[in-house]
Write a structure and sequence with these properties.
Pfam families: PhdYeFM_antitox. The radius of gyration is 25 Å and the shape is elongated. It has a domain of 37 residues: YefM-like fold, CATH 3.40.1620. The protein is 42% helix and 18% strand. It is of the alpha+beta class. The protein is built from 4 helices and 3 strands, in the order E-H-H-E-E-H-H. A hairpin with a 2-residue loop joins strand 2 and strand 3. Strands 1-2-3 form a 3-stranded mixed beta sheet.
Length: 85
């Protein structure tokens, strides 16, 4: 990460943005105090998924199959039979 004074940002905007485009995060300072960070844009992800894409994504990232059984064992019976206070 690099630090750039606001005056230098104003005078060398293209150079700073070139650094950011290359992957560097830049902290902008005013009177020596950090006020902002500029960083590269992350790869965009679709906001909405088609059903088939979502199903494929979930299938590829399933939890450990034993986890469901372990959680069932830990949960035990329901609390429906407990007396209310």
């Amino acid at each position: 990460m690099s630090t750039v004074a606001s005056r230098d940002l104003r005078n060398h905007t293209a150079d700073v943005l070139r650094q950011v485009a290359e992957g560097t995060r830049v902290t902008i300072t005013v009177n020596g105090k950090p006020v902002a960070e500029v960083g590269p844009v992350r790869a965009s992800r679709p906001q909405f998924f088609a059903k088939a894409d979502l199903v494929a994504l979930l299938a590829a990232h399933q939890s450990d199959p034993q986890l469901s059984r372990d959680l069932d064992d830990l949960a035990g019976e329901t609390t429906d039979e407990l007396d209310p206070l």
